[in-house]
From TrEMBL:
Chain ranges of the SAM domain: 508-572, 578-645
Name this protein carries in UniProt: ADP-ribosyl cyclase/cyclic ADP-ribose hydrolase
An example molecular function term from Gene Ontology annotations: signaling adaptor activity
Family classification: Belongs to the SARM1 family.
Keyword Hydrolase in annotation: yes
Keyword NAD listed: yes
Highest rank taxon of the organism: Eukaryota
Reaction equations catalysed: NAD(+) + H2O = ADP-D-ribose + nicotinamide + H(+)
Subcellular location: Cytoplasm
Main enzyme class: hydrolase
Enzyme Commission designation: 3.2.2.6
GO annotation, biological process: innate immune response; NAD+ catabolic process; negative regulation of MyD88-independent toll-like receptor signaling pathway; response to axon injury; signal transduction
């Protein structure tokens, strides 16, 4: 290589060493500021003129060359033989030649926020010189430094990663704009997608790092390019773009998509869900829809109109866990962001029924967000009745009572970084829902979020969205589950936990009653309760006359409001301190609203079920104070059924049976298929019972037996080894065995459904 200026012959002289000294020579060259260059070789020659240096080196064994600045670091190690010449200027490598038989190369780049534009250009130029063409440089870039980041990483390391990969994304998008339809474009998009995934996966800092790179992608024009690719005919380019899009739909990027190309993005998401037998396409399509449902009520309406909700519901029948996680998350987001109009659209499309197999799934994340969706829907009184018909709400309580919020937060990256401020703000009203299931799960989620936000140093968000007062109200309410989680959330964010009210209302003190009266919005009469020394026992016996004459609630409307709150309290109260025979359970079997009579029964001396058989309707009116004649009739009917037991049910003909189908399944591996069958049957108008409890071995619930005897059809789900435990089970301890025997005794139409049948759902429905 010749120098770019005239060089006098002999200017470069060999360094001649004696035999003893020739083993190794270290030559340190004085280069421009902040640029250090060190060679360890057997032969080296150098020339320095002004701000330009030229060097030449040869070795036959090993050469190590490292170039370091505060912008980047490049290291090459060559084994066997190597010869190289380089010319270096203040702006970087001007020219370079090398010949080697074996080389390894490591390149890293780092910077702080204050780098100048020229420094970025120099770093980019050096990057390409060392790595070949722009495409090769992008595709060959190592992500080891990104993968090595952890929760204990220094904040400067995070900032350096932000800068390095923001520059990397900028270069990648410029490269893609030049490549257009080039075959390398999908590969470059996949590489960017890999960067985004690894950024989001960084513990603690993943949220911050991911957001920074998403902003860089949008600012570089990458988001617009990806949306354009969604309409291209090249399927590999289209799918690579959709994959990347699914990874970068942050709040700002969602807004950009909604403004500049929502129809394109929804269309490509729906196209992905229609690709049969492609798990990857299903995951990407449902993932995009999950993000889009987190924008606004208007956007939710547009996505539903463009077919997004229909595509999601179709995917709910799939078995891939990640796809179903996206489906559950998307339906939860639509419930929260969609508003009343879109919730009505969800009811019309039978979403509560489709949520059942998701909430019944063995994967906790699928189960959780399906439960969250159903609780948000049931909190809307206008659609509460339709939601209750699906039976999905019954799956909420088992989840919140068997999981720990802090452990669940770590179980999946999807919620490991927590939800956004807007998402949480939309969940706040659910805390105050009259439905215990809704309040319980909302409190569970805020407890989980409190731990995440505390770790992120962002606990102020809870006061900004108005959640503190709601959490305090729930923390002091007699709902045992919700109050526990709300109190934990308040402690995590450093707020004072209010006075806790026990669920055992009969044991309340006067102070407890005073606190409850204030909580329900009647502070003006709380002093009257204190003066009258009203405790929990007296509170449950108050009549309207007591409220008017003794407490001073002369306003009739206010008395009705107070009575409504008191009845709600009676429904959630725990009577076990006095109810040793489970009279409350007997009344609840006719409907939750019958719990308001439990304390009246106990005070009247009806604390044993044996006493019920001799009770008359007049006594229900005079002794128990049940003025509602319809309720009296239903209670009398319930008592007669309790007397007769199950004897009459065994002899009923099919036309007298009230239940269409009982679904029997092996709990270990048949739950998903059984729940899907339930949905398909309900969509066709059949009434279906499916047991949602995990019964212990040897335990058989009488409610199951009653349901089987009432059923016309017994649908037996035959998953692998479903009947294995029935073999040799002479004592009938296995519940599937007992269910089958009960179905035979009740003359049910038994329909076996095997997983080997490709048309399982339609065949089963036709037989019924």
């Amino acid at each position: 290589m010749s120098a770019p200026w005239p060089v006098k012959e002999g200017a470069l002289k060999n360094k001649i060493m004696d035999g003893d000294q020739q083993k190794q020579v270290k030559t340190r060259m004085h280069l421009p500021p902040k640029l250090n260059f060190q060679l360890i070789n057997d032969e080296a020659r150098s020339l320095k003129a002004g701000d330009l240096s030229q060097q030449e080196s040869k070795n036959l064994a090993q050469t190590n060359m490292k170039v370091t600045t505060d912008k980047f670091s490049s290291e090459r190690t060559a084994m066997e033989s190597q010869q190289q010449r380089q010319t270096v200027t203040a702006s970087g490598f001007y020219n370079q030649e090398k010949h080697s038989s074996s080389t390894s190369h490591i390149y890293t780049s780092s910077s702080s926020k204050g780098l100048s534009t020229s420094a970025k250009i120099n770093a980019t130029r050096q990057f390409h010189l060392l790595n070949g063409t722009p495409e090769e440089a992008i595709l060959n870039t190592s992500l080891e430094d990104l993968e090595s980041l952890s929760a204990t990483s220094d904040v400067h390391d995070i900032e350096r990663a932000k800068h390095k990969y923001s520059t990397y994304l900028d270069e990648s998008i410029r490269c893609l704009q030049k490549l257009d339809q080039n075959k390398d474009a999908p590969l470059v998009l996949d590489k960017i997608n890999d960067v985004m995934r690894k950024a989001w996966a960084v513990p603690t800092y993943g949220h911050e790092l991911g957001y920074a790179l998403c902003n860089a992608l949008r600012n570089s024009g990458g988001l617009d390019l990806i949306m354009q690719n969604c309409t291209k005919s090249d399927k590999s380019l289209q799918f690579a773009s959709a994959k990347l899009l699914e990874q970068c739909l942050t709040a700002e990027n969602r807004a950009h998509v909604v403004e500049h190309g929502l129809d394109k993005v929804v269309n490509v998401a729906c196209v992905c869900t229609k690709i049969s037998n492609s798990v990857d396409h299903s995951r990407v399509g449902t993932g995009i829809l999950e993000h889009l449902f987190k924008h606004s009520e208007e956007t939710c309406s547009d996505v539903v109109r463009l077919g997004g909700l229909d595509a999601l519901l179709f995917e709910c029948r799939k078995s891939d866990v990640e796809t179903l996680r996206h489906c559950a998350g998307a339906l939860a987001n639509l419930s929260l962001y969609g508003g009343a109009e879109n919730q009505e659209a969800m009811i019309k499309r039978k979403v509560p029924m489709w949520l059942f197999p998701l909430a019944f799934h063995t994967d906790d994340n699928i189960k959780y967000y399906a439960c969250l969706a159903i609780t948000v829907l049931v909190a809307n009184p206008e659609i509460e009745a339709e939601v209750l018909q699906s039976g999905t709400l019954g799956l909420v309580e088992p989840f919140v009572t068997t999981h720990n919020p802090s452990e669940f937060a770590k179980s999946n990256l999807a919620h490991a970084h927590g939800q956004s401020k807007t998402w949480l703000k939309n969940l706040v009203p659910v805390l105050s829902s009259k439905r215990e299931e809704a309040s319980n799960l909302a409190a569970f989620h805020f407890c989980m979020e409190a731990g995440i936000k505390k770790q992120q140093g962002n606990t102020n968000m809870f006061s900004e969205i108005g959640a503190i007062e709601s959490l305090k109200k729930v923390a002091s309410c007699p709902n045992a589950v919700a109050s526990k989680y709300a109190a934990q959330a308040l402690r995590l964010i450093g707020e004072e936990v209010p006075h806790k009210l026990s669920q055992q209302v009969p044991l309340w003190s006067v102070e407890d009653v005073e606190e409850w009266v204030k909580q329900i919005g009647f502070p003006e009469v709380s002093i009257s309760f204190v003066e009258s020394r009203v405790d929990g026992d007296l509170l449950l016996q108050l009549t309207e006359e007591n409220l008017r004459d003794d407490i001073g609630l002369t306003n009739g409307i206010k008395r009705k409001r107070f009575t409504r709150e008191l009845q709600q309290l009676k429904k959630m109260a725990d009577y076990t301190s006095r109810d040793t025979s489970n009279i409350n359970n007997f009344l609840q079997s006719m409907g939750l609203e019958f719990s308001i009579y439990t304390y009246s029964f106990l005070n009247a001396g009806l604390d044993k079920k044996d006493y019920l058989r001799n009770i008359s309707e007049d006594q229900l009116l005079s002794e128990c104070g049940i003025s509602n004649s319809i309720h009296r009739l239903r209670i009398m009917e319930g008592i007669r059924q309790l007397e007769n037991g199950l004897a009459n049910g065994m002899n009923e003909d099919n036309q007298d049976k009230s239940l269409d189908v009982f679904v029997s399944y092996r709990r270990s591996n048949g739950s998903q298929l059984a729940s899907l069958l339930k949905v398909h049957l309900q969509l066709r108008g059949f009434s279906v019972f499916i047991d949602v409890e995990r019964l212990e071995a040897g335990k058989f619930d009488n409610n199951l037996l009653q349901s089987i005897q009432k059923a016309k059809h017994f649908l037996l789900v035959l998953t692998p080894n479903a009947l294995e435990r029935c073999i040799g089970d002479i004592e009938r301890k296995d519940w599937v065995h007992r269910e089958i025997c009960a179905a035979l005794s009740a003359n049910c139409n038994i329909i076996p459904s095997s997983t080997t049948s490709s048309s399982l759902n339609s065949n089963s429905c036709r037989k019924i």
